[in-house]
Amino acid sequence: MRYKILIIFIPVLLNSCNGQNKDISKNNNQMKIILKNQLEYGVPNYSNPYNYTISDFEAIIPLTKQELKNRGFKFPTDNDFADRINSIFRRVLNSKSDSKYIYVNFLNKCDRDFIYFPNNIYDYFGVFVIKNDNYITESFAIPQLIDYQKKFPDLANGENLLPKTFIYENGEEVSKYFWKDDKNLMQRRQQNIETLVNRNKYLFNDNKASLVWLKFHDEYFLEQLVKTFGYVKDQDLLKWVLDKNLIKIADEDLQEFGKILWTKTCDNNIIVHKEVFDFIAKQDKTTFKNYNLSLRVFAEDFKDDNLSFSEVAKIKALVCYYGTKMTDDNLFSYFFNVRDQKYEEEFKKNNYYNLPDFKEIYELTRKGGISLPGEIE
After folding, report:
1. Whether residue 162 sits in one domain with residue 80
2. Which residues have a Cβ under 8 Å from the Cβ of 293 and sit 6 or more positions away?
3. Which phi and psi angles does 331 have, rounded to 5°?
């Protein structure tokens, strides 16, 4: 009987291995076709006419997934992954949708169009959410992830024979910048892989070492989690972003600090993050003083030409309310900035934002508050 089971098992195992080998061969062939095209046009830049498509992106999926496996990433369950994506990026994963990916645009969070061009921060910066495998990745050119000269030597040799210029769409002859000529390609490649791994380990494995790495090597990504998407649940991340954005003098400081306090959602809803004020209230005396000063400057000087008066009033109202509630010493520190009748009417029209003691605190500070020593005037 044992021999029969063994005889049956061996063909099944061989068929399974053959199937895996066929998949690997198919992926390599497809990758080779894409890589050949990418090498022909060279490094992405403004004059490079190469059009990155979903085929380019899907060619890197096996590479990114394998790198995560190699580096010990624990792929989350479907439910946990969907919850994290919703919590961090405010995007809902539809399990009934046929779409395998969603694109999260860091430069325009409400734009859902896919961008397959590799990130350059200025024109393109986003990540793809891989729904079937439960991780996130940028779109990369293949040479940004693998040592193509070693893996595909025939294509690397062919790159040496390619013409060094091409005719641009306006008829101008333009020089190509080949991947082989990038002296820092190996270091950039390693950085790309480290970034991929540490983003996923931090967001989905709660890896604190990855957060530390990202603070030193991926600042823009981390800051935008808070300032663009309103992710304020991680207090370690929140403190780091607050410390980097305290208001000093410039209006730009005020606007950037404000991005930590409030978010406008894609359905035009204004959210002021109570969690930020709760966090500030728990800080030591010196840290609280620094944060509180920036809050008070913001409450007094905030304006935004892209928002309606009602939206500005809501932001100032909730900042003043949550700021006042942080400590008894703040009772008369905030609401004196919104004592005008137009604010009073706006607050009343919105039922004092459904906060039970808002009206009481507002009336007290509006009618009885005076400036205390050391307050901003």
Report:
1. yes
2. 247
3. -55, -40
